[in-house]
Specification:
The protein has about 325 residues and is of the alpha/beta class. It folds into two domains: about 190 residues, 3-Layer(aba) Sandwich (Rossmann fold), CATH 3.40.50; about 110 residues, Putative methyltransferase TM0872, insert domain (DNA polymerase, domain 1, Orthogonal Bundle). It is built from 13 helices and eight strands. Strands 1, 2, 3, 4, 5, 6, 7 and 8 form an eight-stranded mixed sheet that branches. Strand 2, helix 3 and strand 3 form a beta-alpha-beta unit. The radius of gyration is 21 Å and the shape is globular. The N and C termini lie far apart (about 55 Å). The structure holds S-adenosylmethionine (SAM).
């Protein structure tokens, strides 16, 4: 019998539990529920009277986590919500949560997204170029089709495509690849991951074609970030999550690339900063007190053992802050 493929193996699980240190009766929010790996471990730790809220844009994640929760016989109050973690304030309000003790987001891509979703997240598959985390997201006002990777590739201007690949993919052959895209779409539209991979490969200088997978990985990442507005979501989420946390509450973020990590690091430093007087002032006149304590003094990465067992954990970085 064929073994069922795992939806997703949670990364840095032991470290997340250590830093968040959840206690029975607490309220915890997982903004990226996925297969429920982090959420259900946290839910167990806050039994029997705790509340666990799991948020995800993808209905498949909610179905998977609900089934796992049933099997695990969780005694915590569970709320699985289809939504965007950027709307955490509204979700907390709607559920009338009185106190939130810990929040986590794990902003990578799940194994299911890559291997089972059929939404074109991987250049190694032959799939339609969708890349939405929310497959039910409706077209924006006045548009006939939803905002997908396909839409971007066939409708964005040359300038906007180049900006997307440079900013979110840091791809040095962006100009050549964009030219390849524009030429291709003048003949026929770009529909599949295979179409895009071939365009990327043939746009590269001959000496770099054997490394086409590297450029493809960066371009696919850039498209995914743009389709899902990932950096905007994070920018909106951080201050709102901090606001809904109770005093002493903790906020953990697992990120997978430097653009996200930079946003998290700056936000955490800003919250942990006390006096902002110029350094040559003999004494503080601003009176500003830190609002938080950074718990991860050094960036936390997966152990060698975890990296060996699960290669998806290699780029993962954990940062945790505690509200004072
Ligand atoms: C890496 S997986 C999370 C895995 C999860 N921590 C686990 O242990 O199984 C990321 C998940 O976040 C979801 N997601 C991505 N962006 C989101 C957003 N802005 N709001 C809510 N969910 C989001 C994706 O659909 C995906 O299921």
């Amino acid at each position: 019998m064929q073994e069922k493929k795992s939806f997703h193996v949670p990364v840095l699980l032991k470290e997340v539990l250590e830093y968040l240190d959840p206690k029975p009766g607490q309220t915890v929010i997982d903004g990226t529920l996925g297969g429920g790996g982090h959420a259900l471990a946290l839910a167990k730790a806050i039994e029997p009277k705790g509340i666990l809220v799991g948020i995800d844009l993808d209905p498949a994640a909610l179905t998977e986590a609900s089934a796992k929760a049933k099997d695990a016989d969780i005694k915590t109050e569970l709320h699985f919500v289809k939504g965007n973690y950027r709307d955490i304030k509204k979700i907390v309000n709607d559920l009338a949560l009185s106190e939130v003790n810990a929040i986590i987001i794990d902003i990578g891509i799940s194994s299911y997204d890559l291997e089972g979703s059929n939404r074109g997240f991987s250049f190694q598959k032959h799939e339609p170029l969708d890349m939405r985390f929310d497959p039910e997201a409706r077209p924006a006002h006045k548009e006939k089709e939803p905002f997908t990777a396909r839409f971007i590739l066939n409708h964005y201007s040359e300038k906007d495509l180049k900006k997307t690949f440079e900013e979110y993919g840091e791809e040095k052959f962006s100009s050549r690849i964009v030219r390849g895209i524009i030429e291709h779409r003048q003949q026929q539209s770009i529909e599949t991951t295979e179409d895009l991979f071939n365009i990327i490969k043939h746009s590269l200088p001959a000496a770099f074609r054997f490394k086409a997978g590297d450029s493809a990985r960066r371009v696919f990442q850039a498209l995914r970030i743009e389709v899902n507005k990932e950096l905007e979501n994070l920018e909106k989420f951080l201050p709102d999550a901090f606001e809904v946390l109770a005093k002493g509450g903790k906020l953990a973020v697992i990120s997978f690339h430097s653009l996200e990590d930079r946003i998290v690091k700056h936000f955490f430093l800003e919250k942990a900063k006390g006096c902002i007087c110029p350094p040559d002032f003999p004494q503080c006149v601003c009176g500003k007190e830190p609002l938080a304590k950074i718990l991860t003094k050094k960036l936390v990465s997966a152990s060698e053992e975890e990296q060996k067992e699960n290669s998806r954990s290699i780029p993962a970085k954990l940062r945790v802050i505690q509200k004072i």
